[in-house]
Amino acid sequence: MAATHNEYRGYLRNTVDIETGQHRFHPVQSSEPTYRPLLFGTLAVMGLLQVASSVAILLHLTGYLQEVDLSTAPHRPIEEVQTEPVLNALRDTRKRGGRCKTQRDILPSAHLPIKRHQEYSKKGEERAITIDWEETHGYHHRMDYQKGKLLVMESGFYYVYAKTCFRYYNYPPEDSSQARSPQVDVSNTQLIQYVYHESIKQNGKALLLMKTGSTMRWNDTSYNMYCAQQGRGVQLEEGDALYVNVSNAWMLDLHGEGTYFGAVKLGN
Description:
Keywords: Cytokine, Membrane, Transmembrane, Transmembrane helix. This protein is an alpha+beta fold. It has three helices and eleven strands; from the N terminus they run αααβββββββββββ. β7 (189-199) and β8 form a beta hairpin. The chain is elongated. The termini are far apart.
C-alpha cells in the first residue's frame, strides 16, 4: 500500500517536471517572407519601363527622334516629303524675322469700275468713245490713271481685261403730262468694245489689242441688255497706256459690277 502511494507521487512529480521543464525541441525561428522584395522590384522595373516608353513616344511625336535607314533612303515616307516645304517656309520666316509683305512685294495691278456720273450724247452714237473710270471706288497699285487711261509704271507681262454692259429701255413716264423722250431706233444696233494699247516704243501709236461685240436687234419698248467681255496677256513697257473704247456709249450700264477695266502683272 505504501509502495503504491510512493509510485503515485512519483508520477505526479514527473508530470510537473515535464510541464515546467525545458523544451526538448527549439522553436522554429519565423522568417519574413522572401516574395515581398521580389514583388517591389518587379513593380519598380515596370514603372521605369512605362516612363521610358512614354518619353520615347513624346520625343518621336515632337520630331526629335528620327529613324534613318540608309538602305531605304530613296523610299522616304510621304508625310515627311509633304511636310518639308512647310517646315522650310517656317524656317525662312523665322530667318526673316516674320517680315510682312511690303509695297514692293505686291505686283502692279489695277481694277477700275465705270464712272457713274457721266453722260454721252446720242449723236454720232456709232463713233467709238473712250470710257472714263472711277478711281475712288477702284484701285491702281504701282500703276497710274489719267483721263480714261491706265499707265504702266513697270515693264513686264500683264493680263489685261475689260467688261462693258449695255442696256436700253424706253418706259413711258409715270406722269402723263411729261413729254416722253424721243425713241431711238435700236432694231439694228452695233455694240462693240475695243481695248487699245499705246506703245511708247512706237511713239504712242495706238494698237488694237482686243475687239468684241455684236449687232443687236432690240425691242424699242421693253428692257434690253447685252455685255461684252474679253481679256488677254500682253508684254508692256514702262510708259505704255491702256484704254477702252465703245460704240453707242450712251447705252452703257453705269454699274461697276457690270462695267469695269483692269490689268495685273504676271511676270517679267
